[in-house]
Backbone:
């Protein structure tokens, strides 16, 4: 064994060595025509923890997140390279069943996107696609998951009303509940609070913290204070030569309080980015 490898083993944190991972990402690159949004990203995502993806605009955070459940497949001139291991399989393989994948790896976007139907149909439509047709079962699932996000008592008397009549914060909680109704294992969240007021943001953060015992959560956020409040693990993306890359990663306590990296510390303090 080389001296370099010996030093790496001695300095590696025990908690990280023993950590179980939901995802193992290796040399992931997302390219649009001849431009790389992000390149050669390698990251292990801890199971049943909250991983925050931080960094300035334009460093590939959203492209990275969208690649995880193959949303990038639907983007014009977009090509994804590398490997993403989930349940011991590379999900970037062409043979991957995307419907099954997106059931297990759900995504919540920056802007709430309820279907332009009733609250009930927002659940019934995707559930029907996955074989749940009994109205009584659908109602049980709706109640359970709306309670998970603290929305049941606000809307249980108007399930036949349009979901578009809900406030922005309520719509985002509805979207989270709808995603969870399909029983995913991983929840991807891309700036889920950026369009919300402080009260709604606090509610979403509380929901995220409550959910981590059941789900692995990856959240892209520009809000450093939010990432510090809710994350267990954090990764800083940066840009070099007009291409995003993973600059630094660590457990959140060290990442935010004693990163041992000059650029990371400067970003956290608001001096860069």
Residues:
């Amino acid at each position: 064994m080389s001296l370099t490898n010996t030093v790496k083993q001695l300095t590696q944190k025990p908690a990280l060595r023993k950590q179980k991972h939901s995802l193992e990402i290796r040399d992931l690159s997302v390219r649009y025509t001849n431009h790389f949004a992000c390149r050669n990203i390698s990251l292990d995502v801890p199971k049943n923890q909250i991983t925050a993806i931080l960094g300035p605009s334009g460093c590939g955070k959203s492209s990275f997140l969208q690649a995880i459940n193959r949303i990038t497949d639907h983007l014009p001139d977009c090509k994804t390279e590398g490997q993403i291991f989930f349940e011991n399989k590379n999900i970037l393989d062409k043979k991957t069943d995307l419907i099954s994948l997106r059931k297990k790896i759900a995504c919540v976007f920056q802007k709430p996107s309820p279907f332009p139907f009733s609250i009930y149909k927002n659940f019934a439509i995707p559930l029907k696609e996955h074989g749940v047709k009994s109205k009584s079962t659908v109602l049980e699932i709706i109640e359970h998951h709306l309670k998970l996000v603290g929305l049941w008592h606000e809307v249980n008397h108007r399930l036949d009303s349009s979901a578009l009549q809900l406030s922005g914060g309520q719509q985002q909680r509805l979207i989270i509940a709808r995603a969870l109704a399909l029983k995913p294992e991983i929840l991807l969240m891309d700036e889920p609070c950026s369009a919300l007021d402080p009260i709604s943001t606090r509610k979403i953060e509380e929901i995220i913290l409550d959910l981590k015992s059941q789900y692995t959560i990856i959240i892209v956020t520009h809000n450093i204070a939010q990432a510090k409040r809710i994350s267990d693990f954090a990764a800083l993306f940066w840009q070099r030569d007009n291409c995003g890359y993973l600059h630094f990663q660590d457990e959140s306590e060290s990442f935010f309080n004693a990163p041992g990296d000059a650029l990371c510390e400067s970003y956290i303090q608001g001096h860069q980015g």
Summary: Residues 26 and 42 are 4 Å apart (CA to CA). The first helix runs from residue 3 to 11. The longest strand covers residues 21-32.
